[in-house]
């Protein structure tokens, strides 16, 4: 973690009970911040993991907020020095994805501008970066890359579409309302869960271990450890000179590499050994740059460790049976 550069103040984290946001809340509390966490459901069972964090009893206040209800956002953001806007649907259902992601982001930006916050950090996605069929194999994927919205629509990739449009809306409102915005674009985030249930990116690993898939796809994907994803958000919030987008990625792996790494650590699970596509050439990993975050002092956790930590966490939470031969 970078040395402290700002006075610890009050910040708001939207969707604070989610996979990445729970880690952001934990690291913020560890660093002495007071956190206004937004949740859609104030039930004790959903939020116990937040309330039990070190520092939470004195410095965490939970607010019931829906992204489409700006009044609820105003009450959570009022009095805050900064906002981490992490809440978003994570789905390919266009009805559930696009409007809450885009209009919700507009509402956060408006409420943040009214409250006069110092900076908003928006959790965008690799989905707003790489969905471009025109990108050549030699291109190094970095913060200058944007997904092609027409391609997202043609391929019905509504998650990537929603995230890209939401990020564009955030930049537009930042300009119009004079808000200091910094964006983190994480790739697939894996690692230990703090929340009680499995989110979509951890389910991506779980499906290889619980026997629910018999083959792996001929596909590549970039990965990052959830601790690093949360750390990146705090670094870009605290560094006065941070600006623009930050691609948050450690490695790009083919699915074959993922199942091989899992099999090395956890050989007793029914991991697939065959690719579902035996016809086409094996997809190649794309080149990427994470230099911008490294310039802020980030040291990325190796992906093998991230995969190991994900499985151990699923076992510890009894979300995956412990198999030991
Ligand atoms: N995990 C990844 O691999 C990954 C990669 C790149 C970017 N991201 C981005 O990171 C962010 C967090 O993702 P995650 O993986 O941590 O997912 P997650 O665990 O599913 O968390 C999403 C959070 O958003 C909240 N939310 C959804 N719709 C909402 C609405 N209408 N109003 C208020 N809150 C709402 C959810 O609340 P409930 O708990 O009430 O459902 C949940 O707390 C998202 O913006 C996602 O696009 C994730």
UniProtKB/TrEMBL annotation:
Residues covered by the NAD-dependent epimerase/dehydratase domain: 11-243
EC id: 1.2.1.44
GO function term, MF aspect, one: oxidoreductase activity, acting on the CH-OH group of donors, NAD or NADP as acceptor
Pathway: Aromatic compound metabolism; phenylpropanoid biosynthesis
Pfam families, sorted: Epimerase
Family (UniProt): Belongs to the NAD(P)-dependent epimerase/dehydratase family. Dihydroflavonol-4-reductase subfamily.
Name listed for the protein in its UniProt record: cinnamoyl-CoA reductase
Source organism (scientific name): Platanthera zijinensis
